[in-house]
Amino acid sequence: MKPDRPSVSATGPSAGPSTGSDLPPWAATRAELGEVLVGLADVQMRSIVTTRLAPAIYMLCVAGVAAINVYLAALVFGYSLVLGLIWLLLIMPVLFISGVVVVRVALEVILSIFRIVVYMESLMDHVATLKGQTETIMDRTEIIDLPRIQFWKPRRRRGDGSGEDRA
User: Contacts from 127-135 at CB under 8 Å and sequence distance 24+?
Assistant: First the structure.
């Protein structure tokens, strides 16, 4: 793997460290947190940590949506008790669910873009390897004088030779 490319495991960008059965769960979580902190300190952007931070980002956004809804409910209760109850029972659940859906879709779109980039980089590495192999094959076959095979032969139609069949 080249040093100027983001590091990616074989299973994709969201794969964490390999945790054996000998590590307790807290140790695996601590190791994952350590890798995320090291990735955040990477100012040259050689590793992608966004995919590992996605659950935390999602939870912060959901908490933000909930806080905005509670704030708006408090404002509406300040105007009127009846409007506050209508807001609390009817409008707030719909807005909360809608906000969570929007956050989830936006985060999944961003993660999909990251995964596409990672897979494209992996594909480009395979193409570079394949290109090197085909160039060596091409160099070897230029030395040997191979007969040319014509795959396409134009058919001549019966008739006067003008290319049209006449009845």
Answer: none
HSE-CB for 153 with a 13 A CA cutoff? 5
Burial of 8 (0-12, 13-18, 19+ CB in 10 A): buried
Amino acid (one-letter) located at 11: T
- Across the 167 residues of the chain, what is the mean pLDDT of every consecutive 10-residue run? 44 45 70 72 71 86 94 91 89 94 94 89 83 66 67 67 52
pTM over 0.85: no
Closest-CA residue to 69 (of 35, 103, 36): 103
Which residues, at least 6 apart from 12, have a Cβ–Cβ distance to it below 8 Å? 115, 118, 119
Nearest C-alpha neighbor of 6 from the set 146, 145, 116: 116
Residue 7: strand, helix, or coil: strand
Helix (H, G, I), strand (E, B) or coil at 114: helix
Q: How far apart are the first and last CA of the chain?
A: 68
